[in-house]
Automatic annotation (TrEMBL):
Pfam families: DNA_photolyase (PF00875), FAD_binding_7 (PF03441). GO terms for biological process: nucleobase-containing compound metabolic process; response to light stimulus; response to stress. GO terms for molecular function: deoxyribodipyrimidine photo-lyase activity; DNA binding; FAD binding. Residues 1-130 form the Photolyase/cryptochrome alpha/beta domain. The keyword Lyase applies. The lineage of its organism: Bacteria, Pseudomonadati, Pseudomonadota, Alphaproteobacteria, Rhodospirillales. This is Deoxyribodipyrimidine photo-lyase. The record marks 309, 362, 385 as: Electron transfer via tryptophanyl radical.
């Protein structure tokens, strides 16, 4: 009887342990993707992610067809779909790579139980993290909530397994199965067509991921440590959306980055290590979400529950549209709207502005980012928002309030990034808005609000 691989956030053929297991079973392989609209748990998928998913699935289907397989698409709740296919095709075994967000864990646990009871072998694997959340433990067996000791303990576990190559052929399943089409899902809007900037910027899918990674290894990894904070230089890897959809394996990234470092001289090795440390933050955030499943909606530090957030609809709208009158914030928000991406330094400044200058609840910013980022990822988005707000684990201290003008002078000294995204400033700035809030006043207001909740505990 055939085996089934259920693709989820692992839309690749290289180093895909679930796919490898299906192939090892020596049976015909059914390749399935289910559009379960709640794939990210309680929080819905955003528009930019939907665009990416459409193209990534198309790329995966092409890669499978080149090897003798094809991707079956179905939409709806996963359990009845899997039960239906297992029954109709007499499937003997189902394989998938694990997801770590709370709703997916609950869903997968129920599916594993139901299918096993029906006599189907079910096996799951680690296809997306360097180390799974339960592998990295403190001396007393607990979970880490501070990054540096987490990363030290993670690295001390040794190198992750070496990646396995993509299969050259695939024993496709020839029976008839109901399938839907990408077009019928309408993940990509045609009217209005807001995806032009995304098309110009990205190539979703495993080939696009690999091309970007190769270019980064060739050109930018060596100086990454010194250059990563400069949005005007744009020298980070831009692998985040590829990682969010599992188009590239982190184990492959690990071995390729260090392999590369071993061939280059001295200081350049530190580029690879500081890059891998950032990849480590991704593991850390998944670890945090796994051990604190209510983090998508609840402050990690509960004293922030008493924080006096403001209802500032005008301010929020100005922020979303890049019209706050603070050029670095506006440049970032416009880059986000146009390309589905924002440089990390600018994400920190823009998020801090919404939270601290406008006192708007971080959850509203998280939702806007989730809708507009191509790399929107529940663990990374939520944990970073909580980090900026000061209510998260190992967070930036609340009282450290970024001055958006000072940040621009430091990290975009020639205003190259700002002029690119806020062209009216390059042309004299007459139609550019005045600041919607005064920095000194806003800073003091934020400190007072913080003092209030400090007093409340
Ligand atoms: P590089 O600098 O090349 O780093 C390599 C990889 O490491 C990234 O692709 C990413 O997977 C990981 N990484 C880097 N920085 C972080 C970090 N701070 N936290 C976790 N992982 C990291 N990243 C997302 O992937 N999805 C999100 O939804 C997301 N939301 C964010 C929201 C806010 C408010 C902030 C401040 C940051 C957020 N980040 C998010 C983290 C970070 O900004 C992006 O991962 C990074 O900018 C992606 O660019 P890059 O691939 O060029 O990164």
């Amino acid at each position: 009887s055939p085996s089934l691989i259920w693709f989820r956030k692992d839309l690749r053929l290289t180093d895909n342990p679930a796919l490898q297991a299906a192939l090892n079973s020596k049976s015909p392989v059914i390749c399935l993707f289910i559009l379960d609209d709640r794939i990210d748990g309680s929080l819905p998928m955003g528009g930019a992610s939907a665009w990416w998913l459409h193209h990534s699935l198309a790329a995966l289907d092409t890669a499978l067809r080149d090897r003798g397989g094809k991707l079956i698409l179905r939409r709806g709740a996963a359990l009845p779909i899997l039960e239906d296919i297992c029954r109709r095709a007499d499937v003997g075994a189902v394989y998938w790579n694990r997801c770590y967000d709370p709703a997916a864990i609950d869903r997968d646990t129920a599916i594993k139980k139901a299918l096993s009871e029906a006599g189907v072998v079910v096996e799951s694997f680690n296809g997306s993290l360097l180390r799974e959340p339960w592998e990295v433990k403190t001396k007393t067996g607990g979970a880490y909530s501070v990054f540096t000791p987490f990363w030290k303990a993670s690295c001390a576990l040794g190198e992750p397994d070496r990646p396995t190559p993509a299969p050259e052929t695939l024993p496709g399943y020839s029976g008839d199965l109901d399938a839907e089409t990408l077009e019928s899902w309408s993940l990509v809007p045609t009217r209005p067509d807001w995806a032009g900037g995304l098309r110009e910027t990205w190539q979703p899918g495993e080939n696009g991921a690999r091309a970007r990674f190769d270019a980064f290894l060739d050109k930018d990894i060596a100086g990454y440590g010194e250059r990563r904070n400069r949005p005007d230089w744009d020298r980070t890897s831009r692998l985040s959306p590829h990682l969010a959809f599992g188009e590239l394996s982190v184990r492959e990234i690990w071995h390729a980055a260090l392999g590369h470092a071993r061939f280059v001289l001295d200081g350049e090795e530190s580029g690879a290590w500081s890059f891998l440390r950032e990849v480590g933050w991704r593991d850390f955030n998944h670890n945090l979400l796994f051990h604190n499943p209510d983090m998508p909606t609840v402050n990690f530090h509960r004293k922030f529950d008493a924080f006096p957030w403001r209802e500032d609809e005008d301010g929020f709208q100005a922020w979303c549209r890049g019209r706050t009158g603070y050029p670095l914030v506006d440049a970032g928000m416009r880059e986000l709207w146009h390309t589905g991406f924002m440089h990390n330094r600018v994400r920190m400044v823009a998020a801090s502005f919404l939270i601290k200058h406008l006192l708007v609840d971080w959850r509203r910013g998280e939702a806007w980012f989730r809708d507009t980022l191509v790399d929107a990822d529940l663990a990374n988005n939520v944990c970073n928002w909580q980090w900026v707000a000061g209510c998260g684990a190992d967070a930036a201290p609340y009282f450290r309030i970024f001055n958006p003008t000072g940040q621009a002078e430091k990290f975009d000294p020639d205003q190259a990034y700002i002029r690119r995204w806020v062209p009216e400033l390059a042309h004299g700035g007459e139609d550019y808005p005045a600041p919607i809030v005064d920095h000194r006043m806003a800073r003091q207001r934020a400190l007072d609000a913080y003092a209030d909740i400090k007093g409340a505990v």
